[in-house]
Amino acid sequence: MSMIVVVTEAVPDRLRGRLAVWLLEIRAGVYVGDVSRRIREMIWQQVDALAEDGNVVMAWATNTESGFDFVTYGKNRRMPVDLDGLRLVKFTPDQAD
Fold first, then answer.
1. Which of 44, 55, 74, 80 has its CA 20 to 30 A from that of 12?
2. What pLDDT does residue 88 have?
3. What are the tens digits of pLDDT across the range 70-92?
4. CA-to-CA distance for 40 and 18, rounded, in angstroms?
5. CA 86, 88, 89 angle in degrees (round to 5)?
6. Which CATH class is domain 2-91?
7. Domain locations in the chain?
8. Shortest CA distance to 23 belongs to which of 53, 54, 2, 48?
9. Distance from CA of residue 76 to its chain's centroid?
10. Mean pLDDT confidence for 59-69
11. How confident is the model at residue 97 (pLDDT cuts 50, 70, 90)?
12. How many Cβ atoms from other residues are within 10 Å of residue 4's Cβ?
């Protein structure tokens, strides 16, 4: 079991309801819980199937240099990058319309 955090933005209510089945919503769109790898992967499948045009990030504790890993779904100005095996986040500037 490991602690996970899921942060959602602009996702459908049905996904928020599904996340609330396994995790505790501690703030609007922020979910935490202690789940197995199998449940974490199943939750991510639900995100992939139901998030539509929203965006989601899931982070969990693991045995890496940083002590955690994460995945993202959807468009966001913060994009994951791999730098010699270390996962970092690249922040892209806002595009003027």
1. 80
2. 84
3. 999 998 888 888 888 788 888 88
4. 13
5. 165
6. alpha beta
7. 2-91
8. 2
9. 12
10. 89
11. low
12. 23
- 55-61 and 30-35 as β-strands: parallel, antiparallel, unpaired? unpaired
pLDDT, tens digit, 9 for 90 and up, residues 33-50: 999 999 999 999 999 999
At residue 96, the pLDDT reads: 65
Residue tagged 């240099």 (tokens): 65
15/49 Cα distance (integer angstroms): 9
What's the angle, vertex CA 28, arms to CA 94 and CA 11, rounded to 5? 60
Q: What is the mean pLDDT of the chain?
A: 92
Q: Would you give the end-to-end CA distance of the chain in angstroms?
A: 45
Joined together, the tokens standing for residue 95 give 């595009």
Q: How far apart are CA 10 and CA 44, in angstroms?
A: 16
Quickly list DSSP for 2-27: EEEEEEEES--HHHHHHHHHHSEEEE
Tokens for 19?
Answer: 């996340």
Q: Measured between alpha carbons, how far is 7 from 72 in angstroms, rounded to an integer? A: 10
